[in-house]
Design goal:
alpha/beta, 12 helices, globular
């Protein structure tokens, strides 16, 4: 058999149902000369049933905690020249692999569209409504802010080796893609490279997500007194940002009716005030 020309790398931790859904979606793609690698992050319950259902997928275990270590292990496990990254809770479009091959020659790293779907029946909770409006705006991340996520990322081994691996303890997506761009690698957005991601269904899940992101973002902010002062100013701007973004929520065509809109606005203010508290504590050298 010819060696694979691309490897799909999927970090996983203790979420077998969503992993099975991810692999089912990928199986609807053309996987000719493509190696699919699941890197399990030493889950308490190994995904043995999922592994049995997908015998053509290679499963490896990475004991170092964190998606960064899992992705790095996946790259080390394959010699494929093209690297396609997707997260275990994402659902690839039926043409995702074909599109990844198509866009790979157009830039050094390519981020695609990430749609949001709900795993619960309507109407949306406040968390789901908030995510429908604000989550995963990859076009803005890439074209305005200059970084991309790794839940829908196409790159090459040459780029990865030049940039180095993902680093844990920080916002690894932002850190890695920012380093790549700093090294002169071209980053572009492709609307037709599509995966879907479930929304966070309740406040606890949304809070957990943003607590982790706040910790990771502070990790790349810097730790000098000047950096901490800037972080504190960003914290104090959080309530103002909620006011600024309220019209976006109220006018969003992604929400159905006033119940979802009011729930989204309430969650917007609740989350921004929570982030302000977390960030001020970080600026003072405290844990969150």
């Amino acid at each position: 058999m010819a060696p694979p020309d691309a490897a799909i790398i999927i970090p996983h931790y203790n979420d077998p149902e969503r992993l099975a859904r991810c692999l089912t979606a990928l199986s609807r793609n053309d996987l000719s000369r493509v190696e699919v690698l699941v890197v399990d992050n030493n889950s308490p319950t190994p995904p043995t049933e999922v592994q049995a259902r997908f015998p053509d997928v290679r499963f490896v275990v990475e004991s170092e905690k964190g998606a960064a270590a899992a992705r790095n292990r996946g790259v080390a496990e394959t010699d494929a020249p093209l690297l396609f990254f997707i997260d275990a809770d994402c659902v690839a479009a039926d043409d995702w692999v074909a599109k990844a091959h198509e866009v790979a020659p157009t830039a050094d790293l390519i981020g695609g569209r990430v749609d949001v779907f709900d795993e619960t029946p309507p109407p949306r909770s406040g968390a789901e409504a908030f995510e429908a409006v604000f989550a995963f705006n990859f076009q803005n991340y890439i074209e305005v802010q200059g970084f991309t996520g790794s839940g829908n990322l196409v790159t090459t081994r040459d780029v990865f080796e030049d940039v180095g691996g993902f680093r844990g303890g920080v916002s690894e997506d932002l850190d890695w893609s920012t380093r790549a761009v700093s090294n002169g690698h071209k980053l572009i957005y492709r609307e037709d490279l599509v995966v879907s991601h479930p929304s966070r269904s309740d406040w606890a899940a949304l809070r957990h997500k943003w607590r982790r992101l706040t910790q990771e973002l502070f990790g790349v902010n810097g730790n000098t007194p000047r950096d901490r002062a800037k972080w504190a100013l960003r914290a104090l701007a959080m309530p103002i940002s909620a006011i600024v973004h309220t019209p976006k929520v109220l006018g969003s065509d992604k929400l159905n009716g006033w119940v979802e809109r009011l729930r989204a606005v309430g969650t917007l203010f609740r989350l921004r005030f929570q982030r302000m508290i977390w960030m001020l504590r970080q600026a003072l050298g405290q844990d969150i």
